[in-house]
């Protein structure tokens, strides 16, 4: 069983699909859920979909001079023009795979699971899905990017059937530049990933109500309610 702490928003009705929503650097699963709740004035709640918010373990984080932070992986610097810290990405991928496999063991098939996240969480989601879970229903990345020369670009060149990517980015983002997100989207699209990219003109490195409502609609389109068998 995955050792990652997590909080969960349970579905209102019968659980037939799951979303794994990864927080940004320095946050927690509970913190992300509360931020969403404040922004939407309610939980990200579905009739049939469970939303899981894991928390990254604290690790030394190079952009913070090695101070401990709840981050999914280390970075040499916050830039799209440097190597990826593959060792830390790989070790966290294993822990998150354990968490996703727990969902599968409860009876939720991979094609009924979406993996996504905000900022670093979105980057981690893209690594996890496009490397290990190319049969999930979809991937979302909010205010996120992949480094130039990412290992993901090399991996997906060899695959033809890839989950759809839903990407959003604030045009005024001064931490993860809008151009980094757009370049990531363009590169993935050129490699055959079905993508959509949504720009928000007045948004900084943050979530907005409109963005989350658009995400909610996309999740429902990607993971529709299953028809109940007659007689049940």
From TrEMBL:
Domain Phospholipase/carboxylesterase/thioesterase: 8-221
GO cellular component: cytosol
Subcellular location: Cytoplasm, Cytosol
InterPro entries named among the record's database cross-references: AB_hydrolase_fold, LYPA1-2/EST-like, PLipase/COase/thioEstase
Catalytic activity: S-hexadecanoyl-L-cysteinyl-[protein] + H2O = L-cysteinyl-[protein] + hexadecanoate + H(+)
Enzymatic class: hydrolase
A single MF term (Gene Ontology): carboxylic ester hydrolase activity
Domain of life: Eukaryota
Keywords, in A-Z order: Acetylation, Cytoplasm, Hydrolase
Catalytic activity, EC: 3.1.2.22
Family: Belongs to the AB hydrolase superfamily. AB hydrolase 2 family.
Function: Palmitoyl thioesterase that catalyzes depalmitoylation of CGAS and KCNMA1. Acts as a regulator of innate immunity by mediating depalmitoylation of CGAS, thereby preventing CGAS homodimerization and cyclic GMP-AMP synthase activity. Does not exhibit phospholipase nor triacylglycerol lipase activity, able to hydrolyze only short chain substrates due to its shallow active site.
The name this protein goes by in its record: Lysophospholipase-like protein 1
Native source organism of the sequence: Geotrypetes seraphini (Gaboon caecilian)
Lineage, broadest ranks: Eukaryota, Metazoa, Chordata, Craniata, Vertebrata
Gene that encodes it: LYPLAL1
């Amino acid at each position: 069983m995955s050792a990652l702490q997590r909080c969960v928003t349970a579905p209102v009705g019968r659980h037939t699909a799951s979303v794994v929503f990864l927080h940004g650097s320095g946050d927690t699963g509970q913190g992300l859920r509360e931020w969403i709740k404040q922004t939407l004035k309610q939980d990200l709640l579905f009739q049939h979909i469970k939303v899981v918010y894991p928390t990254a373990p604290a690790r030394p984080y190079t952009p913070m001079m090695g101070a401990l932070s709840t981050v999914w992986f280390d970075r040499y610097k916050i830039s799209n023009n440097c190597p990826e810290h593959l060792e830390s990405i790989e070790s966290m991928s294993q822990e998150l795979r354990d968490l996703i496999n727990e969902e599968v063991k409860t009876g939720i098939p991979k094609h009924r699971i979406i993996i996504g996240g905000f900022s670093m969480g979105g980057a981690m989601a893209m690594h996890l899905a496009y490397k290990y879970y190319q049969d999930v229903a979809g991937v979302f990345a909010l205010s996120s990017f992949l480094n130039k020369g990412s290992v993901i670009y090399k991996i997906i060149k060899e695959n033809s059937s890839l989950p759809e990517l839903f990407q959003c980015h604030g045009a005024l983002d001064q931490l993860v530049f809008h151009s980094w997100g757009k370049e990531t989207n363009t590169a993935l699209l050129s490699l055959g990933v079905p993508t959509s990219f949504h720009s928000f003109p007045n948004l900084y490195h943050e979530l907005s109500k409109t963005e989350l409502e658009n995400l909610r609609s996309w999740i429902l389109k990607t993971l529709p309610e299953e028809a109940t068998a007659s007689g049940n």
